[in-house]
Amino acid sequence: MPSLKDLRTRISTVKATQKITKAMQMVAAAKLRRAQAAAEAARPYAARLNSVLVNLAESEISNPSAPRLLAGTGTDKMHLLVVCTAERGLCGGFNSSIARLAREKALALIAAGKTVKIICVGKKGNDLLKRQFAKEIIEFVDLRSVRHIGFENADQIGRNIIARFENGEFDIATLFFARFRSVIQQIPTAQQIIPAVMSSRDVKGPISQAVYDYEPDEAEILSLLLPRNISMQVFSALIENAASEQGARMSAMDNATRNAGDMIRKQTIRYNRLRQANITKELIEIISGAEAL
Amino acid sequence: MAGFAFELVSPEKLLFSGDVEEVVIPGIEGDFAVLKDHAPVISALRPGVLSCKDTKGEKQVLFVRGGFADVSTNGLIVLAEQAVPLTEMNDERFAHEVKLASDELASAQTEDSRRLASERLAQIETLRSVVRH
């Protein structure tokens, strides 16, 4: 049976925790707004790049000398999984849901007899996967020191992936991240980036049928565009992830704050009951003492 | 004079969107100007200066690093890796650009990419000397 003092300390501890979770929630809300704006701002570029690429790729894909980034290596023996997660925890199921999706995919590929290599972007994904896939993880990209993710960070990762591809280290690359749907919904997504998958459904408006002039020629433009497209996809994955992370943290901290509130209410009732019981007990003692005289 | 739709986008944001009269683009095979009803062209860009004149005749000059210009019947879209107003380009920024280009040169593996990277580096160096004076 806890004493009155025990209960008092317990209530004040929970109150302190609640203050922290509340503050984290508000910070996440502010960061979310910024992250969402960044994600929004990147969309025009991605859409335009995609529409140019779709235009080009349709004419080039049948070409036997099409770049390997577009056509693939012709095999699918070696897979590269690029797992993008957050650098920090306390954001609900955000990191673990991405890691779970990656883990399922990796296990399925291994069971099918393929070779799997993993690049972890973000510390939490690395922490979650390194025990099971210590041999498969070939690199861990740490973005902890980066306060605001810029295109250059993504470009570095993109170049790294392409360099590995050109060395023949893998045939198919897949990107794992959480797509931001809303504050309470983030969808873990696997997206294949090499060979490029053209999604003409994303193209806004009709694809212009006009005959383009290319400067330099089509093949060279395509070979310049494809690496950039990969960097861009990594970039949009990273900023979608950033928005998702803040959204997940916001709702997790909102829950935590509410739970703390419930706990405080319950403990306060308990505390008041106990206090009243003590008073009643003392009164009974005094009264029965007086009656005995 | 009638203008046409022009959009300048970088991966991080939409930098400009509106009607313009004339845009001069630093294409990889030389500068070219785009006016209304230009024939459809897709061109790669070299690091250089992009200048555009809007319908009121106001001129904007920007430094762009790499990217693409897409001239279609709907207008002109420039996808630049980076775009900075030329007046904001200082020595520090140029030094950064030079460093990026030389890093790329150092890490280039194939003959083609080495050639491209060294061209880029040379272009940035020229631009720097021109802007300084």
Which descriptors would you attach to this protein?
heterodimer; A: 293 residues; alpha/beta; five-stranded mixed beta sheet; 6 helices; B: 133 residues; alpha+beta; ATP Synthase, domain 1; 2 domains; five-stranded mixed β-barrel; globular
Model description:
- The complex is a heterodimer of chains A (293) and B (133).
- In chain A, 60% of the residues lie in helices and 15% in strands.
- By secondary structure, chain A is of the alpha/beta class.
- In chain A, α1 (4-60) packs antiparallel against α6 (218-292) and α5 (151-166) packs across α6 (218-292).
- Chain A is elongated, with a radius of gyration of 28 Å.
- In chain B, a hairpin with a 2-residue loop joins β2 (14-27) and β3.
- The termini of chain B are far apart.
- With 133 residues, chain B is α+β, with helices and mostly antiparallel strands.
- Chain B has two domains: 4-85, ATP Synthase, domain 1; 89-132.
- The model of chain B has no long low-confidence stretch (mean pLDDT 82).
- Classes of the chains: A alpha/beta (293), B alpha+beta (133).
- The interface between A and B is medium-sized, with 33 and 28 residues.
Give the arrangement of secondary structure elements.
The complex is a heterodimer of chains A (293) and B (133).
Chain A lengths: L3 H57 L7 H4 L6 E7 L9 H18 L3 E7 L1 H7 L7 E5 L9 H16 L5 E11 L2 E10 L18 E3 L2 H75 L1
Parallel strand pairs in A: 1-2, 1-4, 2-3
Antiparallel strand pairs in A: 4-5
Chain B lengths: L3 E6 L4 E14 L2 E5 L6 E4 L3 E7 L4 E14 L2 E11 L5 H17 L3 H22 L1
Parallel strand pairs in B: 1-7
Antiparallel strand pairs in B: 1-2, 2-3, 2-5, 4-6, 5-6, 6-7
Helix pairs in contact in B: 1-2
